[in-house]
Amino acid sequence: MGPTLLLLLREEINKWLQSHPHANVEVPTSLVRDVKKGSRIIYTPPYESWLQPIEMVWAQVKQRVREQSDRRRTSQQLQEQTKAALRAMSVERLTSIIRHVHDDIDDWLLTEDAGWLQAWRSLAALVASTPEERDAAYKAYHIEESSPSAAAAAQEPAV
Prior knowledge:
Elements: H1 3-19, H2 29-34, H3 53-67, H4 75-87, H5 91-109, H6 123-128, H7 131-146, H8 148-155
Helix pairs in contact: 3-4, 7-8
């Protein structure tokens, strides 16, 4: 993901967070205390783990730690093995995981399960869309879902 796309994505996430102040408002105090100065915590939907690259990272870290399992392993050894497994994740591997998640999102956007988001057909197109475009698509989809005739009327040009 290039810097321009990253900036656009960050901007869109910030806009969404501002327009949805009720979403993801609980932040553990310890987490806030440990965040580096100038960094921000951005929450993503907790119910869609496949949208979270960190889930794939943790799966790989846990696999590495599991391969070193020993009944006599101490909690200190477990902690050291976990840190080592995290450090072993290369930038290339992490980039590959993020790319894989983006590809999964692109594939999902082509399905009926994507609902109103299906209109964009790719993550890049969704990120490039404006909040007004997303709001209009959301409203049109839900009007159509509740009443096909209302959706048709909403799409007719005003006279």
